[in-house]
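Posting this for the archive.
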Amino acid sequence: QMRLVESGGGLVQPGGSLRLSCTVSGFTFSSYAMTWHRQVPGKERELVAAITDTGSRTNYADSVKGRFTISRDNDKKTLYLQMNNLKPEDTAVYYCNAKFDINDYEVLFHSWGQGTQVTVSS
């Protein structure tokens, strides 16, 4: 059984920080690129960040560049998203997923999990 479980979200004031985690089981984590996406009700899910299988390269949406950092610990089978200087427009449900390659458009898991809610509000 392949599982992706997001955690670490919460309520934070503008300018604050959160660190999201995605724990993986049921597949060879170190063989895949990983992603963070986010979605607001009524809007399309958007790609926030991606990382290669080894963690050697990363990509970010322009809206989060310089504020968010994606990383991974292959020994712990865990993906992270460090979110600094959070803004109200970052409010969304955040999801993790996998890709064969960091540049692929499609993700591996058709069923998105519960995600973790990030709310940025004063």
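The beta strands are 3-7, 10-12, 18-25, 33-39, 46-51, 58-60, 68-73, 78-83, 92-99, 116-120. The chain has a mean pLDDT of 96.
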